[in-house]
# Entry
Amino acid sequence: MIAPARRAAYAVVVRVFEEDAYADRALGSAVEGLDARDRALAQRLAYGTVQMRRTLDLGIDRLGKRPVRKLDPPVRAALRLGAYQLGFTELPEHAVVDDTVELVRAARLERAVPFANAVMRRLAQGFRGLVASLPEGPEKHSYPDWVWETWVRDFGRDDALSLMRAQNEPPALEVHAGEPVGEPTDIPDAYRVESVDIARMRPMSRASQLAALVVGSQPGERVLDACAAPGGKTALLRGDVTAVEVHPGRAAALAEEAGANVRVVNADVRELDEAGFDRALVDAPCSGLGVLARRPDLRWRAQPLPELQLELLRAAVTRTKPGGTIVYSVCTLNSDENEAVVDELGLEVEPLGAEWPQYAHPSRPEFLLTRPDRDRTSGFFLARLRTISA
# Structure
């Protein structure tokens, strides 16, 4: 009998890599009916396998002596899951090997069972040593080359390694709360907690909360939230908020939970027929290189979006009053999407570094940059810009 947590994790791995599913959504259906302990283990195994795919495939290629890309999808998924457990957990080796083989048999690939068994035994003997022997870099820590190259360019080799290691670890769990609920942080009403009751509050990194805070909106002001869903930052904005969301389903979900000061508009902000806002928040789509620990599959699907980000910022500029402010927020660590986008826009920058010195950008202190390795929160870039006065 295959352990329930392994069976659920296997289902997630298959869906992510063979059906292009998102890991969090695939997990939700896979763990239905499991107890809390098995749910937690299934998530750990599934997310870890998805994160470490590059390193796992390298081990299977070398020790299995057959290219991963040529394996049947069920065999590939089972071996990846098994390799992760052997290399990065302390689960009993015999149970890992046995269940991996049984997953292949359950997929009705009896002819592949001897091969899977042989590969798993080779991995049990040599995979940890192989990983230890790899040079520090994207193969060892399982990142695409372009992410590694971007971080080396922007931060240097040592910090790039630090970022890779940090985002292979479970992220800190942070929430916004009106009263103390855990360990206080340096952001007002942001707390670090051990667990979250989803019925009462949702996880929200303090870096994300900081993005809403630097908007500085006040009662009586008209505020544009240009890319509003899922709505965490929207809920923290003061004033009369127009929350714009292009996706109908996400807009509907946001409208159900929005506060009395929020009006939700299902539209593309680039086509919004409104103007005269005092402030705007552009929390733009991005490559997400600051939240890779929270989204295990993102590193394999991420792409920079500087052209879209510029379009969204320009749309906000035309809808904000002369002399109004725009906060540009992206959860990525990539200068092409961060300071380069602001420079291209050409607006006056309101310096933020003196107000939040602990998060000042290392080379451009007028901006803020939070880092998972240094700050134990999501990686965010923040800039506050002022439109040209009339």
The first helix runs from residue 4 to 19. The chain is about 45% helix and 15% strand. The mean pLDDT is 96. The radius of gyration is 23 Å.
